[in-house]
Task: structure prediction
Amino acid sequence: MSDLWGRVDALLSGAERPSRYIDREWGAVHRPDAAYRVALMYPDTYEVGMANQALQVLADRLATLADVACERVFVPWVDMAAALREAGVPLFTLESCLPVSECDLLGITLPHELAYTNILGALDLAGIPLRAADRGEADPLVIGGGPAAHNPEPIAPFFDAILIGDGEEAVLELVAAHRSARRAGVGREEIVRSLARVEGVYVPSLYGAGPGGRLVASAGAPERVKRRVVRDLNEFESPACPVVPYADVVHDRATVEVLRGCSRGCRFCQAGMVYRPVRERSSDSIVRDAVAALTCTGHEEISLTSLSTADHSQLADVLRRLARRLEGTGIAVSVPSLRVDSFTLSLARLLGGGRKSGLTFAPEAGSQRLRDAINKNITEDELLATVRAAFGAGWRRLKLYFMLGLPTETDEDVAEIGHLVARVLAAAKEVTPPRERGGIRIAVSVSTFVPKAHTPFQWEGQLPLSGVRHRQAVLREAMPGKGVELSWHDAETSFLEAALARGGREMADVIERAWRSGAGFDAWTEHFSLTRWRAAFEAAGIDAETAAEAPFAEDAVLPWSHIDSGLAPAFLLAERRRAYGAETTADCTFGDCTGCGVCPSLSADLVLAGERRG
Amino acid sequence: MAEGFRLRVCHRKTGRLRYLSHLELVRACERAARRAHLPYAVSQGFTPRMRIAFGPALPVGTAGEREYFDLLLTRYIPADEVCASLTAVTAYDLAPLSCSYVSGREPSLAAALTIACYDLDVKGGIPPEDLRHALDALLRAGTLSTEHKGKTKVFDLAAALPKEPEVRSSEDHTTVRLTVRMGEQGSLRPDVLVRTALGHDVPATVTRTDLLIDDKGVWRRPL
Ligand code: SF4
Result:
């Protein structure tokens, strides 16, 4: 084991925010004598990566193996990466300050497409060959997992294996498979093959091009990789003692995941499709784990996280119990976002502090027709009633999220966003005393729709950039000028996301070329250059526009056809048809099963802590 | 700080944790107080905050052997018990060294602590005589001006350095020992002083070894 600390230390006095690199936080686990070492990496800075709950959960699970060490790795910021390269110091883990290349397994989170170049940068800095095919016996196994794994192809050649779905159980099985294959004395090829026997694990090297663009599995690998699902979250305690960062990280607070999955059924939303079925944790275990995490970390805030926390059938009960436990401590309870249809004043009051931070709602579309088409079941009346209630009770700030370029969208739909915002503003003013109206802040944030795998819109192409710009102009025109702050999510970044998210294995060349020509930290606007990416597409002989914008035929073999998310293709197609007919589909947690196929095909079931009331 | 029990904690900030910024240090100490389940007082208002107050901030990268904060408790707990429970939940390099109650009427640490002692370990084989000569020459010049974010500060060295700097050397490194008086202008940074004296950058580790109260000419520790 080579401890790099002395050499890292020498570089820190010149580094921006050195506390990113020093380890020694409260809760960091050191196992110098471990027989097996896992490096878990988030492909962005410390501040972004430390907010990732999945890594905390995986570290917690790995800590149950007594002779295994789990160490954190983040991508050094540009200044430090340059200093490390110049000094010849490789990428290191935080806990032991070991070269990442000396670990047995390198697990990498796949949060979104814009992190791909950072993965290559990190592998290179670690001295690990970029492509799995070039790695030798001494190199760690490189295993990915996370939201972007649902279309693994664009990065498949860089990984020895990719986990599709929940990691709580699979991560232990992967370590066990690796260790037992090693004990058997087999070589890397056999080791990697043995990983394919773990449920939910995709080993790209075992799949080759077959007839009609279909990927064909070689012997021993499943024809389609079934997404891994944890049946009951109550079986896993939420991490009680996660690492407490010194640095001001993105979500600097303790967290408890209160439920997984969401079946509201928004048709553009990949998370809402691929994390089904809904599995709630019981209020007892939420309160127990929240108190445990606060006790162990000393955090000043506990966040109850999930895709749609307000849907939890016992949220009010949980909030009341926590409020009682935390009285007089100054510790705040927060939830990531509220939905218009589940917002109630009593809920918002239980959350305290909500008034200054403001409310956040996501109507996503301006017209009722388009909201129906995307299955965003919010009516304008509900939205306005909520706004009146909130502003009447003293709230002054509201943030609204919308999307441009949704399937079936017209200029009129987009202009409707402006009109809707105007009516929201009027409703807010109406119930706010005249003296206080100057304090009203409505922020409108608009992003571009990116079609994603395993959604009813997976066949759609993205609206061309010129079309996005035109719709932005339409929206700007229709927006009330005063009292509203309008901001855009960068359309060029969304274009790249679409091109990568819809791509197949050929995209790996583009990603590698883009990285070689200097791309990195693409999610950081100041580092993103579409020109550089366009050159990479061109050099790889791939048309970026076609990749992002050409729709797939309904009978086409999609690049992710071999990944079985559990969703029935017939369900996705039917949902697409219903979208075109502006017909909505109900949420199965409030009523009957709507036949998405996940429960029967993954032998899972809805887990509700109580009855949900719509 | 009033109504309550004002506990003064002396702690170190050493090793790797010298890289913490002041804000990071503040947050780390607050979290330790919560982990220790101390009955800390909380301010009123929309964002209730722990009633905790620190001495003069250390720059990122500078270690401290005796740093201080005052924490207001709502309930009396023997100081050594508080110290023990804080120690149990604090990283070694931030650990408390001693705790004691002080009167609520005493001025704040930030106002009271005006004398800081530093050790600057200079690396890179600079002969101690050269250092001594360079510092002497700078002291004779009498002033030092620094530029920070477009603002110029001029330090009167006779006032800023109430004691003559000492230069000591052992086999492999040279140590400059400085005593600095902190005024309205803020504190003269020891690394800046040495850099200016030498006319170039030198790799050095800086440690604030003590913080003192100047009580009408008598220097004493705040604890
Ligand atoms: S199979 Fe039915 S119950 Fe299960 S998630 Fe899908 S729609 Fe809901």
Notes: Residues 101 and 171 of chain B are 43 Å apart (CA to CA). The radius of gyration of chain B is 19 Å. The longest helix of chain B spans residues 22-35.
